[in-house]
């Protein structure tokens, strides 16, 4: 179990730095390549979109080639693409390597849910909170250090490429665990196949909630630091604000994971969404008044909502195959929608000349999250209540 947890942490820590590190570096990348804000947003939007679009074929890839091989290939693609992007000499190479980064993150992210459901079916909330915490830890380290590395190395390339290093440790950890774990279903194994829950109302509601949460997260990851750089902050100072966001996000993951012990997680989900709304309103109304406090409140609510919404597909399923199908569906819908977040903020910034309208867009998105929470009871519980009635 210890080896599996360590592997889970190392893999998770590799799945966000390639995205998060672009935030503090965006002003430098925009200047070097002559990008508009909308074009620059693609550096975050492309991986987020692929996290949705590539979720659908992952169950087939797992059955065809086996979970361990597919995971290793995804981590290798992510690591190599992160390194090569730092060497990009053209806009085409910059975006091509970003596609590789997004593909690696997308495939590995889908496989994690099945890994947890198969190995720890009675502890999914705790293990998904560990996973979410490790995701946030990788985000926090990259957010806090990227601006400083760029300042000391004189540019964005070293500060971007250094985040390929955690991928090496993730690859080694997965190889270690794969050799010592029972062979998972895949590669011709006779397993029950579950299609995506396209006709399940609860699945669509989960996808909507998760989409709003990720819309918020990736919008903040992309534009929070550049917004304050435009206001006169240094990239290192703005990076610390982004690190505050990811740190508070990380702290919320285990807190909400341990608070939510029942499969019906509507109350803590509502608490997380309402907390995020309070922080976002503070930033929209007065972005220069105690921004570190407001960002921390926003991130704490976002992080709590994130870790619990990742658990929702597992609460509604009975086995790893079905969990994988639900997780693939939720990721397909939610990340496809979430990819529009950074783009929408970039377009609004180009059109209006500032970020005010973008901030109010995020307020509206969190409002949808709050409105969705009463309907997120597990669907099998709804059937049980109806049967009793």
Task: Give structural notes.
This protein has 389 residues and is mainly α. It has a single domain, classed as Up-down Bundle (Growth Hormone, Chain: A), CATH 1.20.1250. 80% of the residues lie in helices and 0% in strands. Helix 4 runs antiparallel to helix 15, helix 11 crosses helix 15 and helix 11 runs antiparallel to helix 17. The longest helix is centred in the middle third of the chain and has 30 residues. The protein is globular. The N and C termini lie far apart (42 Å). The C terminus is likely disordered. Keywords: Membrane, Transmembrane, Transmembrane helix. One of its GO terms (molecular function) is transmembrane transporter activity. Pfam families: MFS_1.
Summary, kept brief:
The chain has 18 helices and no strands. It has helices at residues 2-14, 17-20, 22-33, 37-53, 58-65, 67-85, 91-119, 124-153, 156-161, 165-180, 201-230, 235-259, 266-285, 291-315, 320-338, 340-352, 356-372, 379-388. Residues 2-381 form the Major facilitator superfamily (MFS) profile domain.
Secondary structure layout plus pairing:
Blueprint: H1 2-14, H2 17-20, H3 22-33, H4 37-53, H5 58-65, H6 67-85, H7 91-119, H8 124-153, H9 156-161, H10 165-180, H11 201-230, H12 235-259, H13 266-285, H14 291-315, H15 320-338, H16 340-352, H17 356-372, H18 379-388
Helix pairs in contact: 1-7, 1-8, 1-10, 3-4, 3-11, 4-7, 4-11, 4-15, 4-16, 5-6, 6-7, 6-10, 7-15, 8-12, 8-14, 11-12, 11-14, 11-15, 11-16, 11-17, 12-14, 13-14, 13-17, 16-17
